Structure formats: structure tokens, C-alpha cells
From TrEMBL:
Residues 29-48 bind DNA. One of its GO terms (molecular function) is DNA binding. PANTHER family: HTH-TYPE TRANSCRIPTIONAL REGULATOR YJDC, TRANSCRIPTIONAL REGULATORY PROTEIN. Keywords: DNA-binding, Transcription, Transcription regulation. It comes from Nonomuraea dietziae. This is AcrR family transcriptional regulator. Pfam families: TetR_C_31, TetR_N. Residues 7-66 form the HTH tetR-type domain. It comes from the Bacteria.
Length: 194
């Protein structure tokens, strides 16, 4: 018979903070996190050095999960780079339609954390760079004439779609964003036809 080990204080803090900061924003109070995690204040400082360290670790953990979801979405779309890129926007359309969607965790963190030196900003910058490289890889495989530039444009569309999805319910930003993504993806060098 196997025994199930309950998560320790560190894991409970991470789970509670990940959930609460997504639902209520980065300004969620330490007391609310401690109560949700059912841990003593001392555990927060022992494991993370304080709230800033906890928030940075929550963001780091989320980036790994979200990058894996991008990869899973693209892999499920097959081998064609165009299909793989457009699958990202199709998946994001489903994401923003979910009843528990609250917007982009990373954009919200960047806006809510006023200190530019907060460790969370380094995590969000790194995450966006990882997603940009993922998109650029597909654009290179597609033979896009400016894969780096196009990847930056697609990332901007991702950010915009997630922001509009949270703030403009009922306007179908996903359809407009996918159409714009197609234009970026289908750009060819002068004189080259598809």
C-alpha cells in the first residue's frame, strides 16, 4: 500500500500564491496567501525570503507550465510551421473564452509591480523571450524573410489578444488577431510567391 505525502509548506505557498495572484492580482495580501496555504508566516521567509521572492517563483513556475503548453499546442498541430503557428492563436482563442480567464499573468505582473528591479520583471522578460524564440524557430522553418521581426510581431499579437480577451468580452478579438497573425506569417520576400 502506498502512502500519499501531503505537499509541504513551500509547495502549498506556491500553489496558493499562483492561484490567488491570478484571480486577484499581484497585490494580493500576504495574509491571504498564508491563510490559503495554511502555513505560518515564517515559512514564507524561510522558503522565499518574503513576498517578492514568492511572486518571482510563482511567475517562474507559471512560465514553465505555459511554455510547455505552447509546445504541446504546436506539436499537436503537426509538422507544418504555418499550421503550428496558427494553432497558437486558435488555442489562445479557447483560453480567453474560458470562464476563469483573467488575462495575461505576465502583463498583469509587469503592470502591478512598480519597482523595475523587482525580480518578477526578469522572469517575465525571460518568458517573453522564450516564447519569441519558439515562434521564431517556426518562422525560420517556414522560410520567412524576417523571422526575428515577425516573431516579435506575433508576440505583440499574443499580448494584445490576452489583454483584449480580459477587457473586451464579447468583441471576438481572437478572430481579428488570427487574421493579423496570418498576414505576419504569410509575408514573403519581394518577388517570392507562396
Amino acid at each position: 500500500m502506498s502512502t500519499r505525502t501531503a505537499p509541504g509548506p513551500r509547495e502549498r505557498l506556491l500553489r496558493a500564491a499562483q492561484d490567488l495572484t491570478y484571480r486577484h492580482g499581484m497585490g494580493v495580501g500576504v495574509d491571504a496567501v498564508l491563510k490559503e496555504a495554511n502555513v505560518a508566516r515564517r515559512s514564507l521567509y524561510e522558503h522565499f525570503g518574503g513576498k517578492d521572492g514568492l511572486l518571482a517563483e510563482v511567475l517562474r513556475r507559471s512560465t514553465d507550465e505555459d511554455e510547455a503548453r505552447y509546445r504541446q499546442t504546436m506539436n499537436a498541430a503537426g509538422q507544418d510551421p504555418r499550421d503550428r503557428l496558427l494553432a497558437v492563436f486558435d488555442e489562445l482563442a479557447r483560453v480567453i473564452d474560458a470562464p476563469d480567464f483573467r488575462g495575461c499573468r505576465y502583463l498583469a505582473a509587469d503592470l502591478a509591480l512598480p519597482d523595475p528591479a523587482h525580480p518578477g520583471h526578469a522572469v517575465t522578460r525571460d518568458y517573453r523571450d522564450r516564447v519569441r524564440r519558439l515562434l521564431e524557430h517556426e518562422l525560420v522553418a517556414l522560410g520567412h524573410p524576417r523571422p526575428g521581426h515577425a516573431a516579435a510581431q506575433l508576440l505583440l499579437l499574443v499580448d494584445g489578444l490576452l489583454a483584449a480577451g480580459a477587457t473586451r468580452q464579447g468583441t471576438d478579438p481572437a478572430a481579428a488577431t488570427r487574421e493579423l497573425a496570418e498576414h505576419v506569417i504569410d509575408t514573403r520576400a519581394p518577388g517570392v510567391s507562396r
